[in-house]
């Protein structure tokens, strides 16, 4: 999930990688940095997550990052739903958005969620998010929302990682949650 | 006698199956519709997925289970009880559809109580298992899902039976049932002995369920532990599964005074951190170094 405040953005993900019911690892990376102040979180099918991230990094390095990676695969899509959070390079204005698997962007001013426990995450964000929070408060809110949402879902969890992006620094915290 | 009338008791040579059981095929479904297909398409999502285990040893029968009730990937209840007492010397672990297990255990409790009144003593564990499997086998093909281990102490000593809703009935020393059972069997097979002590048996059961809750998504919450002895069943403990798993992991950690062995991983980690500045997207790798901004990292 990602949350936005007036001067910073936060993005959080769980750390479980499993195949159906079986948990494979508890330290899987799902949030990837794209540049100085931009993070992208990819959920759903792991093989497509890895493919999309490698394509994005390739295009980023070639300075060719433009729309179309997901919509190119309209009729054989990547099964991944990115959530993007970051600050504008020049104005440092916070920005969050989410894409469905064909690349349709949804931009909001408060929060964005994606993954197997999307409904539970929406419930938690709706009740906890408020405007004009400072970064510490935002971290607490996003962590509590994430932790309680994944605890209600059997196939998510095993720890939470949170990145808070501000104008002059990025804070990353990895936290334990229920490991069952 | 009033009780005789209520029970519709008949003399033994004319006794048929209990008239209180619904007749096979008597489900309320629309006319012209096959019940199984109807339930598969339109039926509600039922609670499923669990880890339960039971094993027989010198001092009785141990039954242990997790407490997570899940409907698909949604955790419906993190603190349910999957070990149901039938009478003072008989317990059952339940797995499959929670609603079916609860219903059929109530039917079993009623039928065993009626038999106790008729015959003057409680039926043996083998008879109880036979009764349950016979009752459920009449509904074979109608999507009942009850996988249970009956744990009891009767005139023959500690007894353990596995009963499934298609009518399967097996006697054994160790059973584990549910989506987490492969992980529990791995731990049980390694540590089980018939002549172990009570404390060893408790530790083995807790360890097996804790490992299963860690690996299996549909098991979790807490670990319930029950012990059936000659004097009756006893609820030994309910422990949080995560806390239990972390304690078990701490027991496996190496001693801290071996400094030489800790020095070796250091260079490898530093080397991998340098490589992470490249395009590494392997699982489990943190890449704060990709950002050219100052990054603070904390692990809690």
CATH topology of the domain at 52-251 in chain B: Glutamine Phosphoribosylpyrophosphate, subunit 1, domain 1
Write down the Rg of chain A: 15 Å
In spatial order, strands of the major sheet of chain B run: 10-1-2-11-12
Poorly predicted ranges of chain A (pLDDT <50, ≥5 residues)? none
Global geometry of chain B:
globular
Would you tell me the overall average pLDDT of chain A? 85
Q: What structural class results from the helix and strand content of chain A?
A: alpha+beta
CATH-defined superfamily of the domain at 52-251 in chain B:
Aminohydrolase, N-terminal nucleophile (Ntn) domain
Distance between the termini of chain B: 69 Å
- SSE series of chain A: EEEEEEHEEEEHHEE
What profile does the largest beta sheet of chain B have?
5 strands, antiparallel
Question: What's the total number of strands of chain A?
Answer: 12
Which architecture of the domain at 52-251 in chain B would the CATH scheme give at its second level?
4-Layer Sandwich
Average pLDDT score of chain B: 78
Please report which band the strand proportion of chain B falls in: under 5%, 5-15%, 15-25%, 25-35%, 35-45% or over 45%: 25-35%
Protein name (chain B): Proteasome subunit beta
Active site (chain B): 50 (nucleophile)
GO molecular function, one term (chain B): threonine-type endopeptidase activity
GO biological process, one term (chain B): proteolysis involved in protein catabolic process
